[in-house]
Amino acid sequence: MDTRPFTADDAEAVDEVHRRAFDGRTEESRIVQRVHDADEAVVSLVAVENDRVVGHVLFSPVSVRTHGEPVELVGLAPVGVLPEHQNEGVGSALVRRGLLACRESAVDAVVVLGDPAYYSRFGFEQASEYGLGNEYGADDGFRVKLLTDGALDDVDGTVSYRPEFRQ
After folding, report:
1. CATH topology for 2-165?
2. Domain residue extents for the chain
3. CB 99 within 8 Å of CB 121
4. What does pLDDT average to in each consecutive run of 10 residues of the chain (167 residues)?
5. What is this structure's pTM?
6. What sign has the CA pseudo-torsion 150, 98, 66, 126?
7. If both were cysteines, with which of 58, 59, 111, 116 could 74 make a disulfide (CB 3.0 to 4.6 Å apart)?
């Protein structure tokens, strides 16, 4: 399996990945499409096996107020893998490669709303311990991973996702 940046030619396959990964729901695939249409994807990667897209991950900007220097935050969402390729490390590979790409793009921290046990293996910690909340009111599942030491020292408040997540 290889990972590579998303291209417009991947759109249909990525739509299928998210629809099938999320039991037929279409919201995740619509978010991906809207973020790409708005040209707001910071990192968007696909996992490819035998010339077939089997997974996808998206990182897009989020905002939070700061008391000091501006901080570059992104949200990880969604990540999806075709059901027949789940539990093979595809999602983990996408998350790891995506975090590396975020670091290379000068992102200071990444937030995610998801399973704490899953995301803790990538170094995500409880976001509320850094003074961060989210517009969905979730606590335990809202996690953050620092990519720059001290990046959240002067940051607190509610993290807001892009409008494409609310449409």
Report:
1. Aminopeptidase (3.40.630)
2. 2-165
3. no
4. 97 98 96 96 98 98 81 95 97 98 97 96 96 90 96 90 88
5. 0.95
6. negative
7. 59
